[in-house]
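Please produce the structure of this protein holding 6-O-phosphono-beta-D-glucopyranose.
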Amino acid sequence: MSETIDLVIFGALGDLSKRKLFPALYQLDRADLLDDEVRIAGLARGDITTEAFCEQIYQALKRAFGSSAFDESSWQRFSSRLSYIQVDFAQQEQFPAIRKWLLKDRTTIYYLATPPSLFGSICKHLSAAECVASDTRIVLEKPIGHDLQSSQQVNSAVAESFDERNIYRIDHYLGKETVQNLLALRFANRMINSQWDNSCIDHVQITAAETVGIEGRWSYYDKVGQLRDMIQNHVLQLLCMVAMEPPNSLQADEIRAEKVKILRALSPITVANVASQAVRGQYTAGWIAGKPVVGYMEEAGSERDSSNTETFVALKAYIDNWRWAGVPFYLRTGKRMQGKVTEVVITYKDHPHAIFPDGTGEAKNRLIIRLQPNEGIELEMVSKKQSLKERMSLEKRRLNLDFFDSSGESRIADAYERLFLEVIKGDQWLFVSREEIEASWRWCDTLLDAWKQTGIGTMGYSAGSSGPSKADMLIEKDQRSWHGS
Ligand code: BG6
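Below is the modeled complex.
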């Protein structure tokens, strides 16, 4: 398949484009991973020239990498690929300007870094302007919808112009090296895979904690909340990678089919169990890295006196299938937490019979898969303490596989670099299918509805803490504790 493509980015002057998309493309170019012929058009409403557009991207890249890591000669090559096209995305009559820019006999990739409310109309206008061929691909940023119904509307609107095989729905977590490594860890290591079920595993924890707040997005975020922002997509995708059955191969269809099965097997959290299986929180003023920060309601842009939107969620979820029956998956994510940590922690069961008496230090094995910071895998094991004085005393030791040190690379690639490469190759294995999106919305909608019906509100937690105390109770009442607490 040809990798000579034309890439057209809608929303090219937005935050995502400047912070993530152009830096990723620049890095790919710098690493010689973009075909010489690849051209990139940035689209936005502003009346500016290509030179002014390049200047904005230049400044954004310098901000992203810092002057020392920025290479002027790579920029010269990269900037020669860039064009700017002024288009008001709501105005169909402006779309022929895109067609004019495209070259025949090339594959076009449209990247919609725009609000999802525009996805349907952009696709319609592209079709009407004859900008869509049978191999034209489209990349959609999250969120796809606000709930099941709206996601179906978005998906159906896009499907009128593009085949499912040409639609690439981004979940940037799937672009992270460590998330892909879950496949290697599980399916390339016999030892791990044979112990991967309810006979050996006591419980699983998935944490995605952030120190950032809502970053100037108050009015958007207040309609969304952390369940939709992080659980519906990133955290459930992680859960799928941990829980899915071995796919028949690494083909996209095979992997995605296994993930859908997990999403469909998630036991619903309903009015009956929401109080015991779900906690929502909202941050109040506190301290992050020694600096005072305001609470959610005092954030710039806050429009109301009170809000019930959650900035923290902790859940106890179950997967109703043969492998995972009875194994709780504790999920936790929040803004303004004490550290930026994304990790999966697998805790193994005790042995059926204990030969080491109480007090010798026996502990459960734990496998810690750290996505950030310090990407790597740790296995907590128990070994004998070296000592002549004691007959048998045990201690916890760690086998440590550090990705960064062992990779020989000078940096770990950003998720968007990997994702761009896969779209260019035409491989959907790291993108989310329509069925996955809709199955995860179905599950989240049930939970959101249970919160609504029961009127369960958010509990305050201080910025810089580990979340509301009720989240600790959620796990402690099962005689377990959050990793790191
Ligand atoms: C985005 C969310 O999808 O992911 C943000 O909208 C969140 O609210 C971000 O901060 C987290 O991504 P990462 O890669 O920094 O963990």
